[in-house]
Amino acid sequence: MAEEHKTSPDLSAGVDAALLPEGGSLNGRVGEDEVLLVRRGAEIFAVAAHCTHYHGPLADGLVVGETVRCPWHHACFNLRTGEALRAPAIAPLACWKVEQRGGKIFVSEKQPAAARQSRPVTAAEPGKIVIVGGGAAGFAAAEMLRRSKYQGSIVMLSDDDAPPVDRPNLSKDYLAGKAPEEWIPLVSDSFYAENGIDLRLRTKVAAIDPQARQVALVGGGTVAYDRLLLATGAEPIRLPLPGSDQAHVHYLRTLTDCRAIISGATTARRAVVLAASFIGLEVAASLRERGMDVHVVAPEKRPMERILGPQMGDLIRKLHEEHGVTFHLENTANEIERSRVKLADGTSLDADLVVVGVGVRPRIQLAEAAGLKIDKGVVVDAYLETSTPGIFAAGDIARWPDIHTGEAIRVEHWVVAERQGQTAARNMLGAREKFTTVPFFWSQHYDVPINYVGHAEHWDEIAVEGDVQAKDCLLRFKRGGRTLAVASIYRDIESLKAEAEMEGIAAAIP
Ligand SMILES: Cc1cc2nc3c(=O)[nH]c(=O)nc-3n(C[C@H](O)[C@H](O)[C@H](O)COP(=O)(O)OP(=O)(O)OC[C@H]3O[C@@H](n4cnc5c(N)ncnc54)[C@H](O)[C@@H]3O)c2cc1C
Ligand code: FES
């Protein structure tokens, strides 16, 4: 990066305009800042060269209209204002002033952050918004409400110990010991007070009273609302196994859970991970990076086959085996003892740390008890409003009508939860905006990222492009000839294009 920085053109001194064709982009620098130039028609935009989420290189991303999409986790930024239009990025990109003179492009001073357009307060504007949940969807909603200039009260109730955290990192770099503490909170602790968001931690909502428009708290007290967002997420499914209530048996959802595993891993040498789920396998990889002996026990024949197909399943298995993980597939645990796990086939595995990752269950009890429509999730309409007007739901609990598959779907993806939180926020203010985003998730195993766009629960064909075993591939999951989802490794631009195609804006891509 340092070398690249020195050799990239100094945009303040001017670059030949011919170097930047229509729709093209060019990396350069202005002083110490790395800057991306993008041409759209007669206009040229200059924005920060790296994504504000995890620093993805935007030059490798996709320009769509007046936006640029990040190659790593598909955040989307407005090129004119820098605004992060789509999560997972929340903070805007810096923008610079651009001039064209004598066939050259000159980039000068950084622009002040674009003044957000004030929004006329309508008579229907709610005075009090309550958000139940301090995770991805709840946080993104609160942030979007303030970003949208909402002036009323926001109360965010969370039964977690910590303010909203970067949950995906808890099974990845943070668990592996490679991410500093400051990466984990989604924003600084002062963000909430500075933005008038009344974040109440360790506060569990016991019930919703839709008639009185208030929620009751465990331990007493009520909080009134005009609009309510339910963003209660999911909780790990507990294994009803003998011995599973011991202190060395862990589940992973919260920062507290993660710290308990890290603490256990400081003295433990041998770990058994129950289930070859995304979280289970990411945990296995992180514990291997900590030098632990790791065994994975799972009932299926191939890890992740149900979601990613046999080719990717074989690759994931090979990848983990190359890193020293031992699989016990088509097998299950019968009993957990203090220092070993007994399997159904009679094998006994030494284990002083056990992590269970057998899946999650949406936390729908509040919604169910309040009489909201439930279908293995909280049923919402295209605007993310539940069957009770004024109550919205987003994230892992929400089952929404997905226009791409024509089915009502519920997914457990970070980016979807955040984007639903953002849409729900605007709709609580009366925007009437449909949630039409194509689902996206990523997973990371060692240095191999897997990106997935779309949603395919069943398919009749997997079209493979590239070489799966060489970790350079794109798999199209098709039903009746139509691509429902695309999984890829190191094919970021194709993944972004597939997403844009699914959104039906392929024509906009040069
Ligand atoms: C370790 C880990 C790694 C992951 N990695 C990825 C990944 O790489 N990519 C990906 O796409 N997805 C990943 N996910 C999934 C992703 O984190 C979830 O889809 C996302 O967090 C869902 O957001 P949410 O807001 O619906 O729920 P959550 O983020 O779980 O937030 C729910 C919130 O509601 C609170 N709550 C629940 N009930 C109550 C109540 N009654 N009263 C008060 N508060 C309540 C909880 O305390 C919590 O604050 C991962 C998940 C985990 C656990
Ligand atoms: S680094 Fe850009 S979206 Fe994550």
Mean of the pLDDT scores?
Answer: 94
| Number of helical segments with 4 or more residues | 10
How large a portion of the residues is in β-strands, by DSSP E? Answer: 25-35%
Biggest sheet layout:
6 strands, antiparallel
Radius of gyration: 24 Å
The count of β-strands is 36
Global shape: globular
Provide the list of bound ligands, each named once.
Answer: flavin-adenine dinucleotide, FE2/S2 (inorganic) cluster
| Class inferred from helices and paired strands | alpha/beta
- Helix content percent band: 10-25%
Low-confidence runs of at least 5 consecutive residues: none
- Please give the order of strands in the largest beta sheet: 1-10-9-4-3-2
Distance between the termini: 28 Å
User: What is the oligomeric state here?
Assistant: single chain
Care to describe what's here?
The protein is α/β, with parallel strands linked by helices and 510 residues long. Helices cover 20% and strands 32% of the residues. The chain has a 6-stranded antiparallel β-sheet with strand order 1-10-9-4-3-2, with no helix packed on it. A 5-stranded parallel β-sheet has the order 13-12-11-17-29. Strand 3 (33-40) and strand 4 (43-48) form a beta hairpin. Helix 2 (136-147) crosses helix 9 (414-428). The longest helix has 18 residues, at 305-322. The radius of gyration is 24 Å and the shape is globular. The model has no long low-confidence stretch (mean pLDDT 94). The chain binds flavin-adenine dinucleotide (FAD) and FE2/S2 (inorganic) cluster. Flavin-adenine dinucleotide binds at residues 132-138, 157-160, 167-168, 170-171, 204-205, 231-234, 252-253, 279, 363, 366, 395-396, 412-415, 417, 441-443.
